[in-house]
UniProtKB/TrEMBL annotation:
Keyword Methyltransferase attributed: no
Pathway connected to this protein: Nucleotide-sugar biosynthesis; UDP-alpha-D-glucuronate biosynthesis; UDP-alpha-D-glucuronate from UDP-alpha-D-glucose: step 1/1
Catalytic activity reported: UDP-alpha-D-glucose + 2 NAD(+) + H2O = UDP-alpha-D-glucuronate + 2 NADH + 3 H(+)
Name of the gene: LOC111312708
Full protein name: UDP-glucose 6-dehydrogenase
UniProt key word S-adenosyl-L-methionine: no
Length: 469
């Protein structure tokens, strides 16, 4: 029986390995992590992440050929293939701070593999890493090898949160990069054999190591670039009377452009787009390519501009002050169908409004009060470092309340901001909300969720990103 071990039981490691276990009953899969609470949650009925369809997959294989454990060394020792899916946050200090990825977690995983291994291993980069990371990992492993042979593969993950299970069941492609040596090709084949249990062969792409590493950064940069492009146009739409959803539709009908990923928003969030573009920018700078670096930097600048623009719109519409006013925040997660708040635009928007002394009442169907308070206190880029898994500090933001009831959140509010596109926001009783709000009652829709005409009929003053005012 082939044995797989995955180091890192997070948003990628957990779902990816659960699907491999489900699709490959002949493979034993162990997912290990240094976080005891995360592993306990994976072994309980309350999984540590909310992801549609994940519970069913885990229930079907857990205890059969899927195991979650903190006994990292034992499972690494036994494995034939080791996936490394640890976090690769942006560095907060030192060389490359604010841009370069912090590979501390990756390096410590590699050193541990070298320490405990007694047989040949295939080590798979699942985390998103800078180009040439495989070379560094090879050095660490080979210089500590005690005669053991390692093959490093790059197998970046393309799943999106909220649709992770669907994406894993039916991926557009699986990408495997490896050395162009006979041993490298054999390792690629071994990993191909795993995916071939359910992924059609023509969707499994093989490349050299550096192309695979760079393709992951490039794919995220392209996706984020589309959003920044449409968000930049949303500002022009508001200035000219064009409607950004009509423009997106018309542009996306061109089959060379395609309709997906053209929804204007308050800005993109999530743990990866910004981090991976900064990573790309840093690599370009280190390779003496400042023009290329500046090109990609603009994608992030436009995203920051979009979030600021939204805050400015709220404040200026509400007579240039939100001081002491109650503003309801509907949605805090970075997108619908996830409880993940990493780099969510809601953090910057809330901080902006708090800076203008607003009182916020926040509702999100999947995000806890502790998480929201932690996010609002934390410094930029600190969220991905384990220190923040520590209990909350007593300095919670006083102007913020969090409730599980959307009608309570909006009661007596002067304005409401929709920051996540949860489906339930489409069907709220907006008449009831209007009746219980201060007048004039403002709606700021950062996700094109509401029917603007209907809300205006009720009496709201409505601002919706990219729509005529
Ligand atoms: P995560 O923070 O949810 O999970 C990482 C886990 O690794 C944590 O539970 C942490 O405790 C654990 N860990 C860190 N160091 C460890 C060590 N030395 N030994 C054992 N466990 C250790 O992160 P994630 O969202 O799963 O992302 C992981 C990687 O995958 C990142 O590089 C990310 O860029 C990439 N990625 C993420 C997504 C996504 O949707 N979240 C999609 C594609 C790629
Ligand atoms: C993204 C990519 O889609 C995945 O392919 C990739 O594997 C992953 O990053 C990663 O490397 O972590 P994810 O961040 O989970 O996945 O979610 P997306 O659906 O890409 O959304 C990212 C952000 O962009 C969200 O805030 C979303 O609301 C926003 N978005 C998305 C828009 O504002 N407009 C759109 O048209 C699409």
């Amino acid at each position: 029986m082939v044995k797989i071990c995955c180091i890192g039981a997070g948003y990628v490691g957990g779902p990816t390995m659960a699907v491999i276990a489900l699709k490959c009953p002949s493979i034993e899969v162990a997912v290990v992590d240094i976080s005891v609470s995360r592993i306990s949650a994976w072994n309980s009925d309350q999984l540590p992440i909310y992801e549609p369809g994940l519970d069913e997959v885990v229930k079907q294989c857990r205890g059969k050929n899927l195991f979650f454990s903190t006994d990292i060394e034992k499972h690494v020792y036994e494995a034939d293939i080791i996936f490394v899916s640890v976090n690769t946050p942006t560095k907060t200090q030192g060389l490359g701070a604010g841009k370069a990825p912090d590979l501390t977690y990756w390096e410590s995983a590699a050193r541990m593999i070298a320490d405990v291994s007694k047989s040949n291993k295939i080590v798979v980069e699942k985390s998103t890493v800078p180009v040439k990371t495989a070379e560094a990992i090879e050095k660490i492993l080979r210089h500590n090898s005690k005669g053991i042979k390692y093959q490093i593969l790059s197998n970046p993950e393309f799943l999106a949160e909220g649709t992770a299970i669907q994406d894993l069941f039916n991926p557009d492609r699986v990408l495997i990069g490896g050395r162009e040596t006979p041993e490298g090709q054999m390792a690629i084949q071994a990993l191909k054999d795993v995916y071939a249990h359910w992924v059609p062969e023509d969707r499994i792409i093989t490349t050299n190591l550096w192309s695979a590493e760079l393709s992951k950064l490039a794919a995220n940069a392209f996706l984020a670039q589309r959003i920044s492009s449409v968000n930049a146009l949303s500002a022009l739409c508001e200035a000219t009377g064009a409607d950004v959803s009509q423009v997106s539709h018309a542009v996306g009908k061109d089959s060379r452009i395609g309709p997906k990923f053209l929804n204007a928003s308050v800005g993109f969030g999530g743990s990866c787009f910004q981090k991976d573009i900064l990573n790309l920018v840093y690599i370009c700078e280190c390779n003496g390519l400042p023009e290329v670096a500046n090109y990609w930097k603009q994608v992030i600048k436009v995203n920051d501009y979009q979030k600021n623009r939204f805050v400015n719109r709220v404040v200026s519409s509400m007579f240039n002050t939100v001081s002491g006013k109650k503003i309801a925040i509907l949605g805090f997660a970075f997108k619908k169908d996830t409880g993940d708040t990493r780099e969510t635009p809601a953090i910057d928007v809330c901080k902006g409004l708090l800076g203008d002394k607003a009182c916020l009442s926040i509702y999100d169907p999947q995000v806890t009060e502790d998480q929201i308070q932690r996010d609002l206190i934390m410094k930029k880029f600190d969220w991905d470092h384990p220190i923040h898994l520590q209990p909350m500090s007593p300095t919670a933001v006083k102007q913020v309340t969090v409730t599980w009831d959307v009608y309570e959140a909006t009661k007596d509010a002067h304005g409401l901001c929709i920051l996540t596109e949860w489906d339930e926001f489409k069907t709220l009783d907006y008449q009831r909300i209007f009746d219980n709000m201060q007048k004039p009652a403002f709606v700021f829709d950062g996700r094109s969720v509401v029917n603007v005409d209907k809300l205006r009929e009720i009496g709201f003053i409505v601002y919706s990103i990219g729509k005529p005012l």
